[in-house]
Predict the structure.
Amino acid sequence: MLRSLKDLIGYPIKATDGDIGKVKDFLFNDETKEVCYLVADTKGWLSTHKVLISPLQLTAPETGFYGKHFPVSLTRKDVENSPLLRNDEPVSLQYEREFARFHNLRPRRPGSSALESLVPPESPLPHAPDEVERHNRKLEAIENSHLRSVDEVIDYRIKSTDHHPVGHIEDLIIETESWTIRHFVVNLRNWLPSRSVLLDIDWLMDFRFGDSEAEVNLTRQQIKESPEFHPEQPVNRQYEKMLYDYYGRPYYW
């Protein structure tokens, strides 16, 4: 079964001994396309607010897809001891935090963009060669983690392979059996009003978090003439076959 990740945000998460919060976000690996964590917002219960829960800890994932809540095989105490979001952040936030630390910059202001958030200090600190080397190794390690936030990626600008802007990411679609992202929805509102298209996640060539954009290996004309996607209609095998046949791409199954 294929489901919208955007629709699942806000669903309650229930421990074996009571409610623990709601789904705030999902973190996924941009290489394997697997959802690694649900981000549980425990505001009002834990002072840390956000903790990470693996899909493997869901006792009945289908309950969330049909019953609009996710039961987990954890007690409230287990959740209290779960990894904090800060300990396993998306790549963009890890990168920004390390960049700010190294350059002695102020942290992100609420509601600001990445470029606005890094305000230079009056006098930058000099760095010894070994500190520069450690900083570069840290940035490389962050890049290699490949962890992305669904909440962050939604609304990324999409460009075609011929470098034309085509729209924005509107949603991500997962295969519920494997918790693997299969598709993403592109809203073409700034180009073709009231029209969205569905594309295979593997057709994305790169996420550029500094620019909040990604490039898809399709031309603007291909996207313009692609089958229209209606979010209220289910994504089934028949629709997928039509999609892949239109683009002349092999099926993923």
Observations:
- The two ends are 13 Å apart (CA to CA).
